[in-house]
């Protein structure tokens, strides 16, 4: 049994400023009370007023396994997630082979179970081989353990396929996670369209590309009444469209990334086009970052996801135009968000920020996993401890992840996850991968 003393408990919705003790027994939370007496055989950890939250959930990570394990495999990714404060992550299926069969779904789940870090839940493809032609066997994939369906890296190729997939998902209690991009508008694009594309001469992703795909999804959602989730939303135009759909009562949800909440296109210029800032969707304007925080405040955004996109240094450390898209961030993403939130003068309540890492994403998962985003007696003991006063340098040489290139390496950030409990077990690091 583990007794956590003097915690400020965030239960998934509200932060209780009164100090509480929380007792973990086996894999569950046994008791929560203002004070619990220590008994023999208990391991006691004094949290000294730190925040005890439900284990953080990341609905969108790329672990490159199977197929590209040198970039990240399920074990390194799962450990990186736990080191970064996450207890559950959902993997994207843009692997090789793409995760489009029950056997591959089970492979990801089983490898995750053995990995020794965060729980790994498989996301599966909408179409066979992610080709956008034939619908994958969504029912069988769901039965095998897939928690959502996505073509991430690309949108669902045709409206017809998306409509059919939405109708299937409605029946099987799953959700489509749409990567919102009208690809006929984004061919060869490199950066945001606007100031940076004008200054650099690089081709810019127009905001309409995100907006058009979101409007397509909303139209199909309106017709089918099937839930749809838009991932890594980045423009004020898109937040507005999603807010309107929500006001209309449609089952639409969305998420935003730590990089779109903290960085903007100027970082690309100031860094003289460093490839660590190359990501899809691209870093947008300062106004879009402000719109993202406004969308956090008004409830438009349901979750924060990393879109952790690991690449080997040899593949990513190239001139901007030649480098692949993607930011690796699992081990500093929580601190990036909290540090930005602190520096911006706390534009929203802390509870609202914590909700987007816990009960927000949990509500998007299928029924059997929804309990994960809450702290209550009898709930699974997945917990993240946050120290808002902790300041630390981001040092990729200590990462569990195989990725080494991130925009924040060497930066001092304030507000860190300092302990992660997965099913009642304190994550102790589980060995580093060092140089790769
Ligand atoms: O920047 C990105 N990288 N965006 C995506 O949508 C895919 C991801 C990847 O797989 O590397």
From TrEMBL:
EC numbers: 3.5.2.3
Domain Dihydroorotase catalytic per the UniProt entry, residue ranges: 49-235
Keywords from the UniProt entry: Hydrolase, Metal-binding, Pyrimidine biosynthesis, Zinc
Cofactor: Zn(2+)
Residues binding Zn(2+) 2: 152, 179, 232
List of residues binding Zn(2+) 1: 60, 62, 152, 307
Binding positions for substrate per the UniProt entry: 62-64, 94, 280, 325-326
Biological pathway: Pyrimidine metabolism; UMP biosynthesis via de novo pathway; (S)-dihydroorotate from bicarbonate: step 3/3
EC class (word): hydrolase
InterPro entries the record matches: Amidohydro_3, DHOase, DHOase/Allantoinase_Hydrolase, DHOase_cat, Dihydroorotase_CS, Metal-dep_hydrolase_composite, Metal_Hydrolase
SUPFAM superfamilies in the cross-refs: Composite domain of metallo-dependent hydrolases, Metallo-dependent hydrolases
Free-text comment on the cofactor: Binds 2 Zn(2+) ions per subunit.
Signal peptide per UniProt: none
Domain named Amidohydrolase: residues: 340-412
Family annotation (Pfam families): Amidohydro_3, DHOase
CC per GO annotation: cytoplasm
Any GO BP annotation: 'de novo' UMP biosynthetic process
Keyword Metal-binding in annotation: yes
Record carries keyword Hydrolase: yes
Record: active site: 307
Protein function: Catalyzes the reversible cyclization of carbamoyl aspartate to dihydroorotate.
Similarity section: Belongs to the metallo-dependent hydrolases superfamily. DHOase family. Class I DHOase subfamily.
Protein's name in the database: Dihydroorotase
Lineage, opening ranks: Bacteria, Thermotogati, Synergistota, Synergistia, Synergistales
């Amino acid at each position: 049994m583990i007794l956590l003393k003097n915690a400020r408990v965030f239960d998934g919705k509200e932060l209780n400023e009164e100090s509480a003790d929380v007792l973990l027994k086996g894999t569950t939370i046994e008791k929560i009370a203002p004070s619990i007496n220590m008994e023999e055989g208990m391991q006691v950890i004094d949290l000294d007023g730190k925040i005890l939250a439900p284990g953080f959930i990341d609905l969108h990570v790329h672990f490159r396994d199977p197929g590209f394990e040198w970039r990240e495999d399920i074990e390194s990714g799962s450990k990186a997630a736990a080191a970064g404060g996450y207890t559950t992550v959902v993997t994207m299926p843009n692997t090789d082979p793409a995760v489009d069969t029950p056997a591959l779904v089970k492979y990801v789940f089983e490898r995750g179970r053995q990995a020794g870090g965060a729980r790994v839940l498989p996301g599966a493809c909408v179409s066979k081989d992610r080709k956008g032609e034939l619908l994958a066997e969504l029912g069988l994939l769901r039965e095998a353990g897939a928690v959502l369906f996505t073509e991430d890296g690309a949108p669902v190729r045709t409206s017809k396929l998306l409509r059919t997939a939405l109708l299937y998902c409605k029946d099987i209690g799953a959700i489509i996670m749409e990567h919102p991009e009208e690809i006929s508008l984004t061919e060869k694009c490199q950066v945001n369209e606007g100031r940076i594309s004008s200054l650099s001469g690089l081709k810019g992703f127009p905001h309409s590309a995100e907006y058009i795909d979101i409007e397509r999804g909303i139209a199909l959602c309106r017709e089918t009444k099937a839930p749809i989730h838009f991932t890594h939303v980045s423009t004020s135009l898109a937040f507005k469209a999603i807010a309107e759909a929500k006001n209309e009562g449609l089952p639409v949800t969305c998420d935003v990334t730590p990089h779109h909440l903290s960085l903007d296109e100027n970082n690309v210029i100031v860094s003289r086009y460093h490839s660590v800032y190359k990501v899809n969707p691209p870093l947008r304007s300062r106004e879009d970052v402000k719109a993202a925080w406004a969308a956090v405040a008004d409830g438009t955004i349901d979750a924060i996801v990393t879109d952790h996109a690991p690449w080997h240094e040899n593949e990513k450390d190239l001139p901007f135009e030649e480098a692949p898209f993607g930011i690796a961030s699992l081990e500093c993403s929580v601190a990036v968000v909290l540090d930005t939130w602190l520096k911006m003068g706390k534009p929203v309540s802390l509870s609202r920020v914590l909700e987007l890492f816990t009960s927000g994403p949990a509500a998007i998962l299928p029924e059997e996993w929804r309990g994960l985003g809450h702290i209550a007696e009898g709930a699974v003991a997945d917990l993240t401890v946050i120290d808002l006063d902790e300041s630390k340098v981001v040092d990729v040489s200590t990462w569990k992840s195989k990725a080494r290139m991130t925009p924040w390496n060497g930066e001092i950030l304030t507000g860190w996850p300092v302990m992660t409990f997965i099913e009642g077990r304190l994550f102790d690091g589980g060995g580093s991968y060092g140089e790769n």
